[in-house]
Amino acid sequence: MRLSEISMNKYATITKNESQRLMAYRANIAAHSFGHLFEIMSQVIVWSVIYSKATILNGYTFQQMMTYVIVGWFILFATSNYGFEDKVAKDIHQGTLSNFLVKPFSYLRYMTAISIGRISFAMVVVVSLEVILLWFMRANLIFNNSVAHLLIVLLLMFFAYFIRLFFSILVGLASFWFVDISGFYYSFNIISKFLSGAFFPLSLLPAAFVKTSMWFPFAYTFFVPIQLYLGKLTLSQGLQAVAIQLAWLLGLYGIIKIVWYRGLRKYESAGI
Amino acid sequence: MPIIEVKNLTKVYDYYKKQPGLIASIKSLFKREKLFTEAVKAINFNIDEGELVGFLGPNGAGKTTTLKMLSGILHPSSGEATVLGFTPHKRQKEYQKQFALVMGQKNQLWWDLPAMESFILNKEIYEVSESDFKHNLDELVELLDIKDILDIQVRKLSLGQRMKCELVAALLHRPKILFLDEPTIGLDVVAQKNIRDFIKKYNKEKKTTIILTSHYMDDIRELCKRVVIIDHGKIIYDGLLDDLIKRYAPQKILKVTFNGQGITKKEAEIFGKVAKYNQYEIELEVGRDEVKDVAKNILSSEFPVDDIMIDEVDIDEVIRKIFKEEHQ
To answer: What pLDDT sits at residue A272?
Structure first.
């Protein structure tokens, strides 16, 4: 056997398998990226038209707005887990979960390992696309050179990834009780995207709304890191956001554990 | 000392009753009638190390439910199961490392990757050492003759090849106990035989305790000395297959073919009870002790005998008889 695999533990092997599996679907992933490009293009077009009538909108210059779109796109896709709810849901209602329950390992950790496998592969595509985008749009973008800012942005993204993953797992676990959850996660994804600021900057909305959205973790997965990148937040505010993310992660982890054990009890008695 | 002990094991499922129709569906949103079924009713059995036991029974009899309780997927509603000294539903790692479950209808291999990747993953999951892994893998690959397909994506394999790979994946950690739920389901005759031969050989060489459920009587006949017959959640027979046949099939079948004029039904009835008749071929049901004499009589008679064959009653027939009796 190859030497590199000897020291790998089980979860690392799962991560490796998943990214390898995805390579079998290169064409599909390329096709995905193509769609992303059009999504960005439409945003660029809409904002360009709007900014032809105004130079500044709720504190955003055209350059800042373009940066919001282009850097935001990177954050959105680098923290995505690509339809994880569905994977969890399928394992549960098709009964494949049984295969995992009889083995000496943890299903939740397995899922996390799979998800990391997905993102590591997708990352290659996402980063290359982002570099191309930055190059083409360079005249209209703001580049932040502060290493400290960039590091905290990356840290925020890192935790944002896990927040989104935990939510996806949680939504997927609803399958213990409901056979089909697709409507559920469709709505959830749109609402959370809206609250995260991925459709447009939250600051375009009334202050009360922005305040409310800060009660949810979603803004911290998108809006906050970009604000930091744009220099609209200070370093200490960035660090504070990291702390809030951590608190959310802990809370979500606890909820997942509870839901998991409750669901398992249901699964065990239903004998799927 | 039995390796598997099952005492009064019971599993009750609850489910909701729903009348057909839209109005009933709407009603059921508010009020649902809860119903219970006893999938397994206070069953008892012991299995010793190295045994290969067949679980037999119609769909929904409780075979799979029993296996799921033994492997820890399901909590028993009451009663207890002890396997290798462990309580399965506690899902202790020490227990999980010592058994494997293969379900013919569900696969554990990674669909989009070659089987080898799943094997490596199982090596990690079960913490098998590099040298054991290599040794076990080589041995299993040799036994099942699948050297050529290890590097092919699982989804491109035939069902038979996939089942072989499933077995390898399940056996890499050398489980002491193997639960096989319908391992030959959907396979063609040749593939069924291959899998069967492998199971037989593996059980003989490794002394692995195996519980097997199957719909195919050939599996049971070829593999299992002992059978446990389950119907409606109850064990209705637990013992040697041979004894089962003797008890429920006290007769043997005598098949005689004739040429020339053949034989009339009346003439045939002289020799014993005629189960099947046509002019050139008859089947007689004859008591085990009389079979030799009857055959001698036929051969020494003036009828133009072409061939004569002594056969056991078909096991399917025996089982059908048992279930029929049970339901009366």
So the answer is: 47
A10 and B125 in contact by Cβ < 8 A?
A: yes
- Residue type, position B156, single letter: K
Classify strands B234-240 and B226-231 as parallel, antiparallel or unpaired. Answer: antiparallel
Specify the 3-state DSSP secondary structure of A71: helix
Q: What is the CATH number of domain B250-312?
A: 3.30.70
Count how many pairs of residues, chain A against chain B, have C-beta atoms within 8 Å.
78
- Rounded to two decimals, the ipTM of the complex is 0.78
Count other Cβ atoms within 10 Å, centred on residue B114: 19
- Find the CB nearest A20 among B14, B101, B113: B113
Q: Which CATH superfamily groups domain B4-245?
A: P-loop containing nucleotide triphosphate hydrolases (3.40.50.300)
For the residues A163-171, what does the mean pLDDT come to?
Answer: 95
* Average pLDDT value for residue range A48-70: 92
Three-state SS at B188? coil
- For every residue of A156-193, DSSP letters joined together read HHHHHHHHHHHHHHHHHHGGGT-S--HHHHHHHHHHHH
**Residue with the two structure tokens 């790979």:** B165
Contact A102 B73 (CB under 8 A): yes
Q: Does position A270 have pLDDT exceeding 70, yes or no?
A: no
List the beta bridge partners of residue B43: B9
Predicted confidence (pLDDT) at residue A3 exceeds the cutoff of 70: no
Neighbours of A11 (CB within 10 A): 20
> A177-225: per-residue pLDDT in tens?
887 888 888 899 999 999 999 999 998 989 898 888 899 999 999 999 9
